[in-house]
Design brief:
The chain is α/β, with parallel strands linked by helices. The chain is 38% helix and 17% strand. It has helices spanning 15-26, 44-48, 65-75, 89-92, 96-117, 151-170, 192-204, 225-235, 254-264, 310-316, 324-340, and strands at 6-10, 30-35, 56-59, 79-82, 122-128, 174-179, 182-183, 211-213, 219-220, 223-224, 243-246, 252-253, 269-272, 279-282, 288-292. It has a 7-stranded parallel beta sheet with strand order 3-2-1-4-5-6-11, with helices on both faces. It has a 4-stranded mixed beta sheet with strand order 8-15-14-13. Strands 7-10 form a two-stranded parallel sheet. Helix 1 (15-26) crosses helix 8. The structure holds NADP nicotinamide-adenine-dinucleotide phosphate. NADP nicotinamide-adenine-dinucleotide phosphate is lined by residues 11, 13-17, 36, 38, 42, 61-63, 83-87, 102, 126, 128, 179, 181-182, 188.
Length: 346
């Protein structure tokens, strides 16, 4: 009998899905990926990690329960990793209902399918630090009160409690990874870190489009996606399912991210002014590179979020390997190379 494990990843075309597929294949897994039907399939991230031929793709929309049941039956996975859904807190203010449908109800449908098809299947849910948001004591551990500040955070909180409930009520091996922000050269372009590294790379190559940002003093706990997917896998190897904060334990401001990313590609950026009047200049040429705009402020912002991953360190033996500084340099250099080669962005 084969001892090879089978995993099903929903959202395999995303940042985390691609890194997780890479991690699981290296561990000897057979990996199925669920992708939503689209006129053009977004395989750029899987291609960047040389995975297109190594994973088996199936179509699935997180809003369609019947196809979910069929997929779980057909693939018969040992483990399911739910990484799919509308993943931007900022965009969730424009698409609150769709966010609730995919992020909140998506995992509920998936767990119901598992309960009916094979309750022994282990499940990972990509929960988010955005379930905390306001008034938490820092650093934030698993026991903090919740107060989400976006439709995305609210939907993630519903998903979080659904996982806890299916574990307690139906005995499913279902775990929440409460993940703080994690980034990489494969991060979506709509997220601030990747927006910074792609824009600065274009400016460094002579582009004219200024980088316009929201609140430069916003601070986040940023880690590397490649490290965070390892925590996901470890959670499903435990005898008991549980919930874990996954974080670096340090916060940095958007301003620091911009400064470091600029330095990594030869731009020395100096800031002048305050609040919405802040502007950033290239110290060598005096050219303005950065502006700020209220358009990029969210209607309600979470407090600065910094996580305490002590439980993951003690129980999973997990700790992040890449530092913030290494992460920023990696992203900035990768986008500079793409800009120089005129590569398509994703
Ligand atoms: P991502 O790059 O935006 O990937 C999201 C994935 O979900 C994509 O594969 C996307 O498919 C898919 N998807 C979106 N709507 C769908 C639908 N209706 N049906 C099926 N698939 C759908 O996000 P990520 O950064 O990898 O994050 C992975 C998960 O972790 C998400 O649930 C996110 O909310 C959560 N999370 C992320 C972070 C972070 O900092 N990255 C932090 C906490 C939690 P397409 O390729 O077709 O768009």
């Amino acid at each position: 009998m084969s001892t090879q494990k089978t995993a099903l990843i929903s959202g395999i075309t995303g940042q985390d899905g691609s890194y997780l597929a890479h991690n699981l294949i290296a561990q000897g897994y057979r990996v199925f990926g669920a992708v939503r039907r689209a006129s053009t399939l977004n395989l750029a991230r899987l291609a960047a990690l040389d995975l297109v031929e190594k994973v088996e793709l199936r179509t699935l929309d997180m809003q369609d329960f019947a196809s979910m049941m069929r997929l779980v039956e057909e693939v018969a996975p040992d483990e399911i990793y739910n990484l799919s859904g509308q993943s931007s807190p900022q965009a969730s203010f424009q698409q609150p209902l769709y966010t609730g449908q995919t992020v909140g109800l998506g995992i509920l449908r998936l767990m119901e399918a598992v309960k009916l098809v094979n309750p022994a299947i282990r499940i990972f849910e990509a929960a988010s630090s955005e379930i905390f948001g306001l008034g938490s004591k820092h650093p934030i551990c698993e026991k903090q009160d919740f107060h989400p500040r976006s439709p995305y955070g609210v939907a993630k909180l519903f998903a979080y409690w659904s996982v806890v409930n299916y574990r307690e009520a139906h005995g499913l091996h279902a775990s929440n990874g409460i993940m703080f922000s994690h980034e990489s050269p494969l991060r979506g372009m709509e997220f601030v870190t990747r927006k910074i590294t792609t824009s600065l790379a274009q400016l460094a190559c002579g582009g004219q489009q200024m980088l316009t940002l929201g609140n430069l003093d916003n601070a986040r706990d940023w880690g590397f996606a490649g490290d965070y997917v390892e925590a996901m896998r470890l959670m499903l190897q435990q005898n008991r399912a549980d919930d874990y904060v996954i974080a670096s334990g340090r916060t940095h401001s958007v301003r620091e991210f911009v400064t470091l990313a600029g330095q990594a590609i030869g731009l020395e950026i100096e800031f002048e002014g305050e609040g919405l009047e802040t502007r950033g200049f290239d110290k060598k040429t005096g050219r303005q590179l950065i502006a700020t705009s209220a358009d990029f402020y969210r209607p309600s912002e979470p407090d600065p979020l910094v996580g305490d991953a002590t439980k993951a360190r003690q129980k999973l033996n997990w700790r992040p390997k890449l530092s913030f500084e290494e992460l920023v340099v990696m992203m900035a250099e990768s986008d500079l190379e793409r800009a120089r080669n005129g590569q398509v962005w994703y």
